[in-house]
Specification:
Layout: E1 7-16, E2 19-29, E3 34-38, H1 45-53, E4 60-65, H2 75-78, E5 81-84, H3 96-104, H4 113-120, H5 135-146, E6 153-157, H6 165-180, E7 184-188, H7 192-198, E8 201-206, E9 209-214, H8 216-220, E10 226-231, E11 247-248, E12 253-258, H9 262-275, E13 280-286, H10 289-297
Parallel strand pairs: 3-7, 3-8, 5-6, 6-7
Antiparallel strand pairs: 1-2, 1-4, 8-9, 10-12, 10-13, 11-12
The structure holds adenosine-5'-triphosphate (ATP).
Length: 306
């Protein structure tokens, strides 16, 4: 990844009256990277992305998108980025291929039609009328249209909101296809599993600034890898003597966090057997990105502050 990053943001600020939506955001996204921006409602994701897209002007800070300042609205930048809008005004009586063709016509060097249709997984719907597409297929058409100009950089805003589980998996395949074609993707999502599966790197934004960043694996390493939890009948907490971090959640359910659970489980079940106590509802769970995300954002005022 030599040379300039695809996106560089330094000290970005944007307020709407008294509301400081973005407060000193820094971001660097490499060419070919899939970067997921996560954060609670009202954290400033949309505002930041809209500034990168050139749809909003910042109050302060430096922004470079493919070497351009998006606030200048240069055609040379517009030709190289793809934006998936929440609602695309596609003519409903056109067929899928015709609709994509129409948008390809706006670009000097469009991406080949068949490649677009295949990337977004609409091969079976190629000759179907737009108005007959399902919601998920419609969203894929929106992405197809964003791909018409063969963009180097694609902005995907909550690409799978409202999708059924199968459609989500297909959308993930689509993002992977985009990644392997070399495109840079900036996506926002509220689904942690989506970020975990798709993103090379994740940035967690809280109150208008990035509070944590890294690959999903790096972020997950912030937390003990495994949580062991179980219920103890009242009066038997003594079997946890020596387990310093054992916490009762108030209902008799205990949690322990460890890197590898084998030894702990051995010790724990040995003590429980000796005491004639059942470790009820015993669970051993790997940490997920969602656990880390919730740790990072639990203190966030989020939307309530607004
Ligand atoms: P969500 O996850 O809900 O989409 P977000 O992280 O995208 O949230 P933004 O939409 O960027 O957050 O909003 C950040 C803050 O700015 C919020 O407090 C929001 O109410 C406020 N805000 C956003 N757009 C405007 C606007 N056009 N006018 C006034 N305030 C706005």
């Amino acid at each position: 990844m030599s040379g300039e990053a695809a996106i560089t943001v330094r000290g970005l600020r944007k307020a709407y009256g008294a509301i400081e939506a973005v407060r000193g955001l820094d971001l660097e996204i490499a060419h070919g990277e899939v970067y997921a921006l996560l954060g609670p409602n009202g954290a400033g994701k949309t505002t930041s992305v809209e500034i990168l897209e050139g749809h909003r002007d910042p109050d302060a800070g430096e922004v470079s998108v493919l070497g351009h300042d998006p606030a200048r609205h240069e055609a040379a930048l517009r030709e190289r980025i793809g934006i998936v809008l929440q609602t695309t005004g596609v003519e409903p009586y056109l067929k899928v291929a015709e609709a994509i063709e129409q948008y390809r016509g706006y670009y000097a060097q469009p991406r080949p039609l068949d490649e677009i249709i295949e990337t977004v997984g609409l091969t079976g719907q190629r000759d179907q009328r737009v108005r007959r597409l399902s919601g998920g297929q419609q969203r894929r058409l929106d992405v197809a249209i964003a791909l018409a100009g063969d963009p180097e950089l694609l902005f995907l805003d909550e690409p799978t909101t409202g999708f059924d589980p199968a459609a989500r998996r297909q959308a993930w395949d689509m993002v992977r296809n985009l990644r392997s074609s070399g495109a840079t993707v900036l996506l926002t999502t509220h689904y942690m599993d989506e970020a975990e599966h798709l993103a090379d790197r994740v940035g967690v934004i809280v109150d208008g600034a990035i509070v944590a960043e890294g690959s999903p694996a790096e972020l997950m390493a912030r937390r003990a890898a495994v949580t062991v939890s179980f219920r103890l009948p009242p009066g038997h907490a003594a079997i946890l003597d020596g387990f310093e971090d054992a916490r009762d959640d108030g209902s008799g359910r205990y949690e322990l966090h460890v890197e590898s659970p084998t030894e702990l489980l051995h010790e724990l079940s040995g003590r429980a057997l000796a005491a004639g106590v059942e470790l009820a509802e015993l669970r051993v769970e790997r940490a997920t990105l969602e656990d880390v995300y919730l740790d990072l954002t639990s203190g966030a005022a989020g939307e309530q502050a607004a």
